[in-house]
Design goal:
The chain is built from 1 helix and 20 strands. The protein has about 260 residues and is mainly beta. It folds into 2 domains: about 110 residues, Elongation Factor Tu (Ef-tu), domain 3, CATH 2.40.30.210; about 140 residues, Jelly Rolls, CATH 2.60.120.
């Protein structure tokens, strides 16, 4: 069963497959591999229902208010389909036909800077005081032995995707100069995080920020390890993760694809 909805930049949601808004036709499963500097358009044919003329008018007004926010402010919302989302905003809303006083057929055109449907996958890695079983290997049957590493601060994560991926990492204090090795990529920042402080590294916008207990945010961009960029995308496949085991962190991957997930 397809799930589809639009979420504007204010977090307001418009369900596109639930009364009174029912999608009759959409091209979100169409893919293109040639980039277009002018952006991409995705179209949704939407039937807007109501119990009577006044009810339809109220629903059309809600449609405008949810979709119009991003068009008026120049921000991007998210078109969600089956667990993937496309950063976009409404470009046009054309009233195709008035089927009756209780149904209006509307053609919605969404514009996106690039055709990248995003699927988010996250894992949490906790402080390890002793050696623990490797994570991420899920077999449909049991082995007579455990996949256990002899060292603390080790884990694996099997990422079922085709290309490389942007990421966001949240490192939790207390720790000093946190360093994480993912396959051959070193992610290291020369900073001290006290208890209840945390740091966010985001490869999408090339930022490293420290969040203090008092609410202050510090820019740690120039405190990152130099050499190979920590903002380089992470590969798919088997990720071998190593760190001291003395602190915890969350790792979120943004898996991009050219069409919405089926």
């Amino acid at each position: 069963m397809i799930k589809a909805y639009y979420e504007n930049s204010k977090g307001e949601i418009l369900n596109l497959l639930s009364y009174p808004f029912l999608t009759a036709e959409a091209d979100w499963f169409d893919a293109e591999w040639e980039d277009d500097v002018g952006g991409f358009i995705r179209t949704v044919q939407l039937d807007v229902f109501g119990a009577n003329k006044e009810d339809v008018s109220q629903n059309m007004e809600r449609l405008y208010r949810v979709l119009g926010v991003d068009a008026e402010t120049g921000k991007f919302g998210k078109l969600h389909v089956n667990g993937t989302y496309l950063p976009c905003r409404i470009k046009a809303s054309k009233k195709v036909t008035w089927k009756s006083f209780t149904v209006i057929e509307t053609e919605l055109s969404f514009t996106a800077e690039k055709l990248s449907w995003v699927m988010v996958e996250s894992r949490s890695f906790y402080p390890q005081t002793e050696a623990s079983a490797l994570e991420g290997l899920d077999f449909p049957f049991d082995f007579s032995f455990d996949f256990t590493d002899a060292r603390k601060g080790t884990a694996v994560w099997e990422v079922d995707h085709i290309g490389s991926n942007d990421y966001q990492m949240i490192v939790y204090g207390p720790c000093v100069n946190p360093r994480i090795l993912i396959n051959e990529q070193i992610i290291e920042v020369f900073a001290t995080l006290e208890k209840e402080e945390y740091m966010i590294i985001d490869s999408r916008d090339y930022t490293v920020q420290k969040y203090l207990v008092n609410g202050t945010v510090q820019n740690l961009f120039h405190d990152r390890a130099l050499g190979k960029s920590i903002f380089e995308q992470l590969p798919s496949g088997l990720l071998k993760i190593n760190w001291s085991g003395e602190f915890g962190f969350d790792l979120t991957l943004f898996l991009e694809r050219r069409e919405a997930k089926w």
